[in-house]
From TrEMBL, chain A:
This is Anaphase-promoting complex subunit 11. Residues 35-78 form the RING-type domain. Residues 87-109 are annotated as: Disordered. Keywords: Cell cycle, Cell division, Metal-binding, Mitosis, Nucleus, Ubl conjugation pathway, Zinc, Zinc-finger. GO terms for biological process: anaphase-promoting complex-dependent catabolic process; cell division. Pfam families: zf-ANAPC11 (PF12861). It comes from Aspergillus cristatus. Pathway: Protein modification; protein ubiquitination. It is found in: Nucleus. Belongs to the RING-box family. One of its GO terms (molecular function) is zinc ion binding.
TrEMBL record, chain B:
CDD domains: UBCc_UBE2W. The keyword DNA-binding does not apply. PANTHER family: UBIQUITIN-CONJUGATING ENZYME E2. Keywords: Ubl conjugation pathway. This is UBC core domain-containing protein. It comes from the Eukaryota. Pfam families: UQ_con. The lineage of its organism: Eukaryota, Fungi, Dikarya, Ascomycota, Pezizomycotina. InterPro entries: Ub_conjugating_enzyme, UBC, UBQ-conjugating_enzyme/RWD. It comes from Aspergillus cristatus. Residues 2-157 form the UBC core domain. Gene3D superfamilies: Ubiquitin Conjugating Enzyme.
UniProtKB/TrEMBL annotation, chain C:
Residues 21-64, 795-822 are annotated as: Disordered. SUPFAM superfamilies: Cullin homology domain, Winged helix' DNA-binding domain. It comes from Aspergillus cristatus. Pfam families: ANAPC2, Cullin_AB, TPR_ANAPC2. This is Anaphase-promoting complex subunit 2. Keywords: Cell cycle, Cell division, Mitosis, Ubl conjugation pathway.
Length: 109, 157, 915
């Protein structure tokens, strides 16, 4: 007998490449969930991975960074917050404030 | 929206587990909670005493800090709660603590972590005194605690 | 002879003639003519006093003449003592002969006639009439009383009352003939009437108050006669016959059937109003006419002999009251079609049939004693209205009793609700309604024998019906409480509701995964509810509603109309938090979204509608799930393209054929926990999955994929020696059959054979799953099981005899081994057999396990009496070593099986051992 698979419809789950069950320090929701302002996870509710090793839902961090009191610091370690993948620009604060939902793809690329 | 979801999460977590010496007293809504704390060692200043903290949350919590202060319940009350004596705690319950100020706040703080900070602030204290100018401050201050420009010059407490 | 002595003598004579042979007088109690008064020296008797007083002033005929006349007259008038037997013989004898026998027929001699005239012409004439009254009484007591009394000893005898009446009529005839013929003509008009009435009354009192005819017995007889004839006259008999004949023959009988009918159904079906009117009023058939004649003539007789009047009216009223109930019970049960015309029909019947009989009867027995018919009507409009109200109350009670079945039949039974609406208008009937219905519900619905679908189905009907009955919703609120409380305790309530909401309105396509029927009408209801405005959901009063009415007084303090307004809302609000509901929705949605379908229209619309109800936030997870499926399609296209997974479309370029790998990519955080049953998929597929993952990770940086290999569908093509098999199967079935692939395709080697253990090892799959897959392939006639746990490929279908060991295909017979279509049908048969076998064995296994606990249950119920399900579960959890492994629902089913086997019975929600 010869077995041929004509079509294989599989099911998979996706998750952020993060330790399991890690939560965003600001909203306390799992990274694989959404920040309080988003409805859909993934593309719509991206993560920001900081150089300091701390990550947040992008929208959560944005809300914080936009506070004058934040002084552009990571809420966890109080270092300047700079995200991975945008090495050439040293001024993280400046850039995080520019981020909008439309440019999510670019940031991650 | 933001505050509500975040507080629901914290509430759910605290109902499961809280560190020793910290208990949940009351939460009628998502705007004001009350927590009871006590020190764990035998510091004579606070021994066998429970204190009541009142948290007031704004819509922008946790981006903005909550307002936290001690409140007192009279000795006649079934659960009497005095204001602990401490060089950074005014006799009206207002606490002079960096992480509760707008400048010192971080959104990763939680009700639990704030309670723990205050708990350890009491544990470490040995001075049986109120902040300087306590009676004037209590009489004249009309500002909200987080807007008061405290001086955090004393690192010992 | 001095006059005084004459008077004394005459007086003595009177006494003697009356009392000489008199037996014990019996309980005469009349005040009008007490028989013993003459014995009482203080009493005055008009006749004697008259004669005493008038004697000196007005000399009459001389005493001797008077005496002679008296003797002659009394001799003539005296009634012979012939006993009751002579009276009872009336049936055989001609009336003339009869009267002769009673000495009533011969004319008086001249002398006697003169004597009568003398006696009557005197002022003392009263005395001869009085004497005759006494004579009648004496005679009746001596001759007839005991005979009549004896007749009553056999009350069951047919026509007894008629016989008694006839006897009394004859007795009256005997007594009155001579009076009427020879005495009355001698009197002037007013005297005549007075004398007649006097004796008439004497006779009536005798009949009524002598112990001959005790009223309780007579009234029982009268009741029987009334009832018998009224049943016919009022059409109730005909209704019962009709019901007994059954529905089927009705239409055929219509032609020959009687035209007169009080049948509600026929009345209802008759379109013409005039014809309806005539149905009850015209063309009474002979039976009814005869019954009416019989009854009226009986009543005439009764009235004549003194058994009518008030007492008979009371009996009649009692009978007519029960007739009303009889009629309602004969005419309206099960007549539930809407809109209801019961009230019109009942009114029509009351006015034309019921009232008519009452008028006719009262015309006879409601005559005042004077004999004159009064001017006032016996029946007036307010009476008719009262009867109608009484009748309608009966209808209400009937409908109350039928209510459970009315609900089962809903909406075909809306007429019954129309009827009830007129009944539940005051707090007392409303209270009765809720109490009685709630208890019926407890007995008939809220017990472990009813499935959740049944309960919900009926609850939906109740919601709809009671919303019509009482738009304010108070009745529903009260009735629904126990149902809701009960439903909350059922494990599968949410599942049934959500399953119902998601059910495809067109039940075609795939059969429901569970054999249990689904509450599919919920999905229809959801669509309907969506079309209706949802703005009524607010708790606020609508200040612009000019038709606003306050809540009825019997509304519960926490009554809120909006809660019970619609079906879906009612069901969803069963649960305190919407989370329960949403969670179940999530589970069901997950199951359905992972099936291979082209569209999810139903799911979309359910989701949209639920969002309106619960708000977007509550349904975020469901929305993400839907979005995952739609996004997956787009992403799938992109990745397959990027990774070169798309088959070349140009046929002349013979590239290596690779399986089409598609994937659904789920946001795991929002999906219900999916049970993972890991196993090794074929390497070919693993490789493709790796390429797919790479594609995904480059498309969506910082993310990674986890494959859930036990989910999904695979289209396989199996190339066997004598046939090619193509089908869509599960991933694990595909993996198992792949393990049987020949290593060297061209060689003629024996068919691949593997054991369960080998497969388990090779695939790293659980033995249960392997076995299940093998069974599947056996049913498809791809594998056989030559010995236990060893499987072999069936390269060529057997010809002729059954392959030994192919246990799952008992239907393979000799005549289907030639062509492929025959093989296919054999496979189908085997498929069915295997499925049945699988199901059977699963059930048997479950039963076997459950039977272990049966002994516990029997012991418990024997020792501790009846118990509800919850308690049984609790006890089992305590007493069974290692815990009780079944759910409430499973136990419920098991117990239901025991109930159907007659080993248990359920009452009031409790199980008990059938003794």
């Amino acid at each position: 007998m010869k077995v041929t698979f004509k079509e294989w419809n599989a099911v998979a789950t996706w998750r952020w490449d993060m330790p399991d069950d890690d939560v965003c320090g600001i909203c306390r929701v799992q990274f694989d969930g959404t920040c309080p302002t988003c409805k859909f996870p993934g593309d719509d509710c991206a993560l920001l991975l900081g150089k300091c090793g701390h990550s947040f839902h992008m929208h959560c961090l944005m809300t914080w960074i936009q506070q004058e009191a934040s002084k552009g610091l990571c809420p966890m370690c109080r270092q300047k917050f700079e995200w991975k993948g945008n090495e050439e620009d040293g001024n993280a604060t400046q850039n995080t404030q520019d981020i909008t939902q439309d440019t999510t793809q670019d940031i991650q690329a | 929206m933001f505050a509500g979801k975040r507080l629901s999460k914290e509430l759910a977590k605290m109902q499961g587990h809280l560190p020793p010496g910290i208990t949940f007293a009351k939460s009628d809504n998502l705007e004001e909670w009350q927590m009871d704390i006590r020190v764990l060692d035998d510091n004579p200043l606070y021994q066998n005493q429970i204190y009541r903290l009142k948290f007031t949350f704004s819509q922008k919590y946790p981006i903005e800090p909550p307002e936290v202060q001690f409140i007192s319940l009279p000795a006649s009350h079934e659960t009497p709660r005095p204001i602990p004596i401490h060089p950074h705690i005014y006799s009206n319950g207002i606490i002079c603590l960096d992480l509760l100020s707008t400048a010192g706040w971080s959104p990763v703080q939680t009700v639990e972590s704030v309670c723990m900070s205050i708990q350890s602030m009491l544990t470490a204290n040995t001075r049986d005194e109120r902040p300087p100018g306590d009676s004037d401050f209590v009489s004249y201050n009309k500002r909200r605690p987080r807007d008061i420009n405290f001086q955090y010059d004393d690192d010992n407490v | 002879m001095p006059p005084t002595s004459t008077i004394t003598t005459s007086r003595k004579r009177v006494f003697n003639s009356v009392f000489s042979a008199s037996p014990a007088l019996g309980p005469f109690s009349t005040t009008d003519n007490p028989p013993l008064k003459s014995i009482d020296p203080l009493a005055t008797s008009r006749s004697f006093d008259d004669s005493q007083l008038t004697e000196p002033d007005e000399p009459g005929p001389d005493q001797e003449t008077w005496d002679r006349a008296w003797d002659a007259a009394t001799a003539f008038l005296a009634v012979p003592d012939r006993g009751f037997a002579a009276l009872g013989a009336f049936e055989d004898i001609d009336e003339d002969v009869f009267l002769k026998r009673w000495n009533r027929h011969e004319r008086p001699s001249r002398k006697t006639a003169d004597a009568l005239r003398v006696l009557v012409s005197q002022e003392q004439r009263g005395s001869i009439i009085d004497w005759y009254g006494q004579e009648i009484r004496r005679h009746f007591l001596k001759n007839f009383r005991d005979g009549l009394f004896d007749l009553l000893c056999y009350p069951e005898k047919e026509g007894l009352l008629q016989r008694i009446v006839r006897c009394l009529e004859l007795a009256r005839r005997i007594y009155f003939t001579r009076l009427a013929e020879y005495i009355l003509p001698l009197l002037d008009a007013s005297e005549k009437e007075r004398a007649f009435l006097k004796l008439h009354r004497t006779f009536h009192h005798m009949v009524a108050y002598s112990s001959a005819l005790p009223w309780d017995r007579v009234s029982a007889l009268l009741n029987r006669e009334f009832t018998k004839e009224a049943l016919t006259i009022l059409g109730i008999d005909a209704l019962k016959e009709e019901a007994a004949r059954g529905d089927v023959s009705i239409d055929e009988d219509m032609e020959v059937d009687r035209e007169f009918s009080v049948s509600y159904r026929r009345w209802r079906e008759e379109p013409s109003v005039d014809a309806r009117m005539e149905m009850m009023t015209e063309n009474e058939d002979a039976e009814v006419v005869a019954a009416r004649d019989r009854l009226l003539s009986l009543l005439n007789g009764l009235q004549l002999v003194g058994l009518g009047g008030d007492k008979a009216q009371k009996v009649f009223a009692g009978v007519m009251n029960s007739m009303m109930i009889e009629f309602v019970l004969a005419a309206y049960p099960g007549q539930w079609e809407g809109p209801s015309l019961v009230s019109q029909h009942l009114r029509h019947w009351v006015e034309n049939v019921f009232a008519r009989l009452v008028v006719q009867v009262l015309a006879i027995i409601n005559v005042p004693e004077s004999g004159k018919s009064s001017e006032h009507l016996d029946v007036n409009l307010s009476d008719v209205e009262k009867w109608y109200e009484t009748g309608f109350t009966c209808v209400g009670t009937l409908r109350m009793r039928e209510l459970f079945d009315v609900m089962v039949e809903w909406p075909a039974s809306s007429g019954a609700i129309d009827d009830l609406r007129r009944f539940t208008t005051n707090p007392a009937t409303r209270l009765y309604f809720t109490l009685s219905f709630a208890s019926v519900l407890c007995d008939r619905l809220l017990h472990p024998g009813a499935s959740t679908v049944e309960i919900l189905q009926l609850y939906i009907s109740i919601i709809r019906a009671l919303n019509l009955l009482d738009p304010k919703g108070v009745l529903l609120d009260r009735v629904a409480r126990p149902i809701r409380r009960y439903l909350r305790d059922r494990d599968d309530t949410v599942k049934v509701i959500v399953g119902g909401l998601l059910a495809d309105p067109d039940a075609e396509g795939q059969p429901a995964p569970s054999t249990r029927e689904t509450l599919a009408e919920l999905s229809a209801e959801l669509t309907k509810a969506h079309q209706n405005s949802l703005q009524n959901d607010g708790d606020e009063l609508d200040w612009n509603d000019m038709n606003w009415m306050p809540d009825p007084v019997d509304a519960a303090p926490d009554f809120r109309k909006s809660k019970t307004a619609d079906v879906i809302g009612s069901l969803i609000s069963l649960f305190e938090s919407k989370e329960t509901f949403v969670k179940e929705m999530q589970n069901m949605l997950a199951e359905r979204l992972l099936q291979k379908r082209t569209d999810y229209v139903q799911e979309m619309s359910v989701l949209e509608l639920l969002k309106l109800r619960f708000g977007d936030n509550a349904l975020q997870a469901c929305e993400v799930m839907m979005r995952d499926i739609f996004d997956s399609r787009r992403v799938d296209g992109v990745i397959r393209n990027d990774q070169g997974l798309v088959q070349s479309t140009t046929p002349d370029e013979p590239t290596e054929e690779i399986p089409d790998l598609h994937a659904k990519i789920l946001s795991h955080f929002f999906w219900p926990d999916i049970q993972e049953q890991a196993f090794k998929v074929p390497e070919e597929i693993t490789a493709l999955q790796q390429r797919y993952s790479t594609g995904f990770e480059s498309l969506k940086p910082s993310r990674k994929l986890t494959w859930l290999n036990n989910l999904g569908q695979v289209t396989v093509e199996l190339d066997l020696d004598d046939r090619v098999f193509v089908d869509e199967v599960t991933t694990w079935q595909a993996a198992v059959i792949y393990a049987f692939q020949s290593t060297t395709p061209d060689d003629k080697q024996p068919p691949v054979t593997k054991t369960l253990e080998q497969l388990t090892q090779e695939l790293q799959m659980s033995p249960a799953l392997v076995r299940s897959a093998c069974l599947f392939w056996i049913s498809k006639r791809i594998l056989t099981e030559p010995q236990r746990d060893t499987y072999r490929v069936l390269e060529t279908l057997p010809s002729g005899e059954n392959e030994p060991g192919t246990t799952a295909e008992p239907n393979t017979t000799d005549d289907i081994n030639d062509d492929t279509s025959a093989a296919a049908s054999a496979a189908a048969a085997a498929d069915a057999a295997a499925a049945a076998a699988a199901k059977e064995s699963a059930e048997a296994a479950a039963m076997e396990k459950m039977n272990l606990y049966w002994q516990f249950i029997v012991g418990m119920l024997t020792n501790q009496g009846a118990m509800p399900l919850q308690q049984i579960v609790m006890m089992l959890k305590m007493v069974v070593p290692g815990g009780f492994p079944f759910s409430n629902e499973e136990l419920r089913e098991f117990l239901a099986g025991m109930v159907s086997k007659g080993k248990l019975e359920v009452s009031g929600g409790k199980y008990k051992i059938v003794p």
